[in-house]
Amino acid sequence: MEEMLLLIRDAITAGDEDAAKKLVGEALKAGLEPRNIMERAMMPAMEDIGERFSRNEAFIPELIVAAAAMQEGMQLLKPLLTAGEKGSGKVVLGTVYGDIHSIGKNLVRMCMEGAGFEVIDLGEDLKTEVFVEAYKEYSPDILGLSALLSSTMQRMKEVIDAVRVIDPSALIMVGGAPVTSDYAIEIGASGYASNAFEAAMNAKELIV
Ligand code: B12
């Protein structure tokens, strides 16, 4: 089992989409839990490649192929993660302006759907006005903002302030690698989570 997780991790870091898909399929057949595969093989792979990138040992093309291999593996987990109960509430989700990182946000969507939320995924690189318009249009129970860059995470405060003008009690959750719970409190967010599974749990707690 441990070896299988290591192979998945290596396939993703190497950006081998076919191997990633095949190995995730095999791991599921062997009875490994989707959450285990995600937390112990796929996410560590992205951390590895990110660290190598920081040390100038990996470059953008490697990040791109690793991300593609990760998405390929996620496709197999999606039906399992999203096959949950229904009727928890409505979530509007998106990545803030200037930020095109989508993997974490997509994972949050899957886990929230698995927890029974209807999720409207607005996509990535969204201007503050897009969040405000979507909030008016969908009246979600929760608005979720994702940011992966220390430069773009500051946009989250801008979105929170703009949405609170139209709804002072709006429930807004924030997340993404550079975001901390202290930062979430500082910018006035209603909730935070460091991973997608926790995001779904915290979302449920927020709306009870
Ligand atoms: C893959 C990747 C890319 C891919 C993205 C592909 C895609 N479709 O997403 C590409 C190649 C496009 C990319 C580009 C860039 N990247 Co990049 N990238 C990464 C990498 C390696 C992995 C990110 C990832 O997918 N992680 C896996 C997911 C599962 O984790 P996650 O995103 O953190 O999400 C989890 C939680 O944070 C949380 N969460 C996320 N969102 C939300 C939202 C809510 C509401 C909640 C509650 C929770 C939550 O739940 C998620 C699931 O568990 C990271 C390194 C790293 N360790 O993060 C660098 C990293 C984020 N990138 C970085 C940089 C610098 C860039 C570039 C500027 C590089 C460049 N010079 O062009 C560009 C910027 C592009 C842009 N404008 O956005 C830096 C950021 C440094 C910083 N602090 O600002 C990092 C940290 C790499 C590094 N170590 O230097 N990148």
TrEMBL record:
Species the sequence originates in: Candidatus Solincola sediminis
B12-binding N-terminal domain mapped to chain residues: 1-89
Presence of the UniProt keyword Metal-binding in the record: yes
GO BP term (any one): homocysteine metabolic process
PROSITE patterns: B12_BINDING (PS51332), B12_BINDING_NTER (PS51337)
Record-linked InterPro entries: Cbl-bd_cap (IPR003759), Cobalamin-bd (IPR006158), Cobalamin-bd_sf (IPR036724), Met_Synthase/Corrinoid (IPR050554), Meth_synthase_dom (IPR036594)
SMART domains registered for this protein in UniProt: B12-binding_2 (SM01018)
Keywords: Cobalt, Metal-binding
Pfam families reported in the protein's UniProt record: B12-binding (PF02310), B12-binding_2 (PF02607)
Metal-binding as UniProt keyword: yes
Protein name: Cobalamin-binding protein
Any one GO CC term of the record: cytosol
Residue ranges of domain B12-binding in the record: 88-208
Superkingdom per UniProt: Bacteria
One Gene Ontology MF term: metal ion binding
